[in-house]
């Protein structure tokens, strides 16, 4: 019986515990720049908030940068009752919500035909949608005005809904077509082999996989429509049909301006969009990080 001599284990063979890497010091300047930019971006909102809860006397004596001595809500209540902000808020929410849903639906149908259907002349059609999206609103307002007059839609929320649904869907079609052009054909062919028709392929295969992109488009369309001023200001002339940006523009006059009421109106007009953005921020981050469909 032979004894096997045990060899000493080399220290090199023993794995050493992996230590976490130290942060690269080069990141600190980047973080500092980002922090400075964040402060610069948030500073106007802080100033608006300070002036919204400040009395007119405090604004006259201390200026816009002075801190308030209390919590004054007179400017907010005055603006709310002056323009009937509750009705205007409902108008903006209805217009923006309907436009977002209809524009996403139109973008989905158009992009499905162009990106997956591969119809003839798709390149020229997509280019046409892109050119239509770059047209200035000042060049479109006259034909849109007379068309709304002829269809008896002038001074109704439907005139703005139809216009912005078409405008937003032009951009959505261009963007979503580029996404669906990289859609895996194997999934579509497998669904067709299983007996699925074109509508079934769209609603059961394409839409579920592309849901993050559609969510991002819906959020963008809502916020873009909420912030629109020029076309609603021309199409909606009565106080009952106005939107939030139009109501904010009525507070500015040539000879006098209430700074506290203006700041209160800006705060009330900003809060719904911020709340909507915070609610759907996960949808935005998920849609942006998903990237192209593979």
Overview of this protein structure:
The protein is mainly alpha-helical. It has a domain at 88-247 and 269-290: MetI-like (MetI-like fold, Orthogonal Bundle). Helix content is 70%, strand content 0%. The chain contains 14 helices and no strands. Helix 1 packs across helix 13 (259-279), helix 4 runs antiparallel to helix 10 and helix 7 packs antiparallel against helix 10 (211-226). The N and C termini lie far apart (64 Å). The model has no long low-confidence stretch (mean pLDDT 81).
What labels describe this entry?
294 residues; mainly alpha; MetI-like fold; 70% helix
Per the principal axes of the C-alpha atoms, what is the gross shape?
globular
The major beta sheet can be summarized as: none
**Relevant CATH superfamily of the domain at 88-247 and 269-290:** MetI-like
**What is the CATH architecture descriptor of the domain at 88-247 and 269-290?**
Orthogonal Bundle
Say what the CATH topology of the domain at 88-247 and 269-290 is. Answer: MetI-like fold
Tell me the structural class.
mainly alpha
Which percent range fits the helix content?
55-70%
N- to C-terminal distance: 64 Å
Tally of helical runs: 14
CATH class of the domain at 88-247 and 269-290: Mainly Alpha
**Beta-strand proportion:** under 5%
Radius of gyration: 28 Å
Uncertain runs are none
Number of strands: 0
Mean pLDDT: 81
In N-to-C order, the SSE pattern is HHHHHHHHHHHHHH
Topology:
Elements: H1 27-52, H2 56-62, H3 74-83, H4 85-116, H5 122-133, H6 137-150, H7 157-180, H8 185-193, H9 198-209, H10 211-226, H11 230-235, H12 244-249, H13 259-279, H14 281-290
């Amino acid at each position: 019986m032979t004894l096997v001599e045990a060899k000493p284990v080399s220290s090199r063979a023993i794995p050493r515990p992996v230590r976490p890497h130290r942060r690269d010091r080069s990141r600190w300047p980047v973080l500092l720049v980002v922090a400075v930019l964040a402060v610069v971006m948030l500073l106007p909102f802080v100033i608006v908030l300070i002036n919204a809860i400040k009395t007119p006397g405090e604004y006259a004596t201390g200026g816009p940068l002075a801190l308030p001595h209390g919590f004054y809500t007179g400017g907010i209540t005055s603006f709310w009752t002056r323009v009937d902000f509750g009705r205007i808020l409902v108008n903006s929410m209805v217009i923006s919500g309907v436009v977002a849903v209809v524009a996403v639906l139109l973008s989905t149908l158009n992009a499905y035909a162009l990106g997956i259907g591969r119809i003839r002349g798709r390149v020229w059609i997509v280019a046409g949608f892109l050119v239509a999206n770059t047209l200035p609103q000042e060049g479109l307002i006259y034909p849109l005005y007379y068309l709304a007059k002829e269809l008896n839609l002038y001074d109704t929320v439907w005139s703005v809904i139809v216009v912005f649904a078409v405008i937003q869907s032009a951009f959505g079609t261009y963007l979503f077509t580029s996404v669906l052009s990289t859609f895996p054909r194997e999934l579509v062919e497998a669904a067709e082999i299983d007996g699925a028709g074109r509508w079934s392929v769209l609603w059961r295969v394409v839409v579920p996989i592309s849901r993050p992109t559609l969510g991002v488009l819906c959020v963008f369309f809502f916020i873009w429509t909420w912030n629109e001023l020029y076309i609603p200001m021309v199409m909606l002339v009565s106080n009952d049909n106005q939107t939030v940006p139009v109501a904010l523009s009525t507070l500015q006059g040539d000879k006098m301006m209430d700074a506290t009421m203006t700041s209160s109106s800006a705060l009330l007009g900003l809060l719904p969009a911020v709340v909507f953005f915070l609610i759907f921020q996960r949808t935005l981050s998920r849609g942006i990080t998903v990237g192209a469909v593979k």
